[in-house]
């Protein structure tokens, strides 16, 4: 007998990479082999040297096909087995190992927007719905658009065994969020990429599309982010927890760090980080307790307990989770090491 392995990888589309996948039939019990693809069709190679290599790095049950079928996340390699330039996971793996003793973990809040053709789901043809206010965590057909898709996606993530920790309707109609984690850096990023693939794939069956566009509607409508929650063992457990939390917040504001981070937090970040709609301006770093207008928020409970985690509110919905987790681990764990 055989099973189907859906090999999933991240392509070279600029400025924001896309997910690609194709199916391999394998004999029951077979190990997941290296595979290849035509890199000239994914912005990853020239036509005269088009072969790229797929190296399986994470697999889970395929909740759509069921049975013993698998989803297989891959790193892209060159034919000499070195990481392809589009492969941001390889660098995170190194950083993760370097700081593993601090036990960093992340929870990422993935916001996204459903589209029905060229308008957000719930937007009337040729116009706009009622202004924002009632949609966030709403209930009822006047406020909620796409819940059937969201529920199917949640069930698929759970069947796949992903560490998804919740979902909610967002501030703009047709906009939703799911959270992955808390998990170590490589794990949270791998699982977020699979959860994104499952989002697109699930929505396909409902005839809607999902986008990570950080500002899908210009004007007085919230953008879509990927708030990235972070802690190390010391931050979580104390007794120096709060001191470590402040060290982490300060480290993110030092020297060139604010810009180094923001310019790698997803294409179009200055359209979203305007200082409006629960954001801080992209060119001004700040942190504060309970402050949803700051770059980095310390939840009130964390201040009260004197330990816990911080929330970097800047990453766009279209951020590469391998990049944001690497930058945060590099910046914060280096500072905490001292
Ligand atoms: P909010 O919408 O209020 O910002 P959410 O509940 O959507 O918050 O997301 C909070 C995220 O923080 C979740 O993904 C959760 O897994 C994560 N989280 C909780 N505790 C920690 C921790 N100690 N370290 C890192 N992430 C954490
Ligand atoms: Mn072919
Ligand atoms: Mn949230
Ligand atoms: Mn949100
Ligand atoms: Mn948040």
Automatic annotation (TrEMBL):
Domain GS catalytic: from-to ranges? 88-338
Keyword tRNA processing attributed? no
GO molecular function annotations of the record: glutamine synthetase activity
Check the UniProt entry and state the signal peptide residues, or none. none
**Location of the GS beta-grasp domain:** 3-81
- Decide whether keyword Membrane is in the record: no
**Which reaction equations make up its catalytic activity?**
L-glutamate + NH4(+) + ATP = L-glutamine + ADP + phosphate + H(+)
Q: What EC number(s) does this enzyme carry?
A: 6.3.1.2
**Which controlled-vocabulary keywords does the entry list?**
ATP-binding, Ligase, Nucleotide-binding
Domain of life (superkingdom): Bacteria
Entry-linked Pfam families: Gln-synt_C (PF00120), Gln-synt_N (PF03951)
How is the quaternary structure described? Homooctamer and homotetramer.
This molecule's function is given as: Catalyzes the ATP-dependent biosynthesis of glutamine from glutamate and ammonia.
> Which NCBIfam families does this chain map to?
gln_syn_GlnII
**Family statement:** Belongs to the glutamine synthetase family.
What is the protein's name according to its record? Answer: Glutamine synthetase
Q: Which organism is it from?
A: Streptomyces amakusaensis
């Amino acid at each position: 007998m055989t099973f189907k392995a859906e090999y999933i990888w991240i392509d070279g589309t600029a400025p924001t990479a896309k997910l690609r996948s194709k199916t391999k039939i394998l004999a029951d019990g077979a190990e997941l082999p290296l595979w290849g693809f035509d890199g000239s069709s994914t912005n990853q190679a020239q036509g005269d040297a088009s072969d790229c290599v797929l190296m399986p790095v994470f697999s889970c049950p395929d909740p759509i096909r069921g049975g013993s079928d698998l989803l297989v996340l891959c790193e892209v390699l060159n034919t000499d087995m070195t990481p392809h330039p589009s492969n941001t996971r390889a660098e995170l793996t190194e950083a993760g190992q370097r700081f593993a003793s601090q036990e960093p973990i992340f929870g990422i809040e993935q916001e996204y927007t459903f589209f029905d053709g060229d308008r957000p789901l719930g937007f009337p043809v040729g116009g706009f719905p009622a202004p924002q206010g009632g949609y966030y965590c709403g209930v009822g057909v006047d406020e909620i658009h796409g819940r059937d898709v969201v529920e199917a996606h949640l069930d698929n993530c759970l069947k796949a065994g992903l560490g998804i920790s919740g979902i909610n309707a967002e501030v703009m109609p047709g906009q939703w969020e799911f959270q992955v984690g808390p998990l170590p850096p490589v794990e949270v990023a791998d699982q977020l990429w699979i959860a994104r693939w499952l989002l697109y794939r699930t929505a396909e069956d409902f005839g809607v599309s999902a986008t990570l566009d950080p500002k899908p509607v210009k004007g007085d409508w919230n953008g879509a982010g990927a708030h990235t929650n972070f802690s190390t063992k010391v931050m979580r457990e104390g007794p120096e927890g709060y001191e470590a939390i402040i060290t982490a917040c300060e480290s993110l504001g030092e020297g060139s760090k604010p810009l180094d981070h923001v310019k790698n937090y997803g294409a179009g970040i200055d359209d979203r980080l305007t200082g409006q709609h629960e954001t801080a301006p992209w060119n001004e770093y700040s942190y504060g307790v309970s402050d949803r207008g700051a770059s980095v928020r310390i939840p009130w409970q964390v201040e009260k307990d004197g330990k816990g985690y911080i929330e970097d509110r800047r990453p766009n919905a279209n951020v590469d989770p391998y990049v944001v987790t690497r930058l945060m681990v590099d910046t914060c764990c280096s500072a905490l090491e001292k």
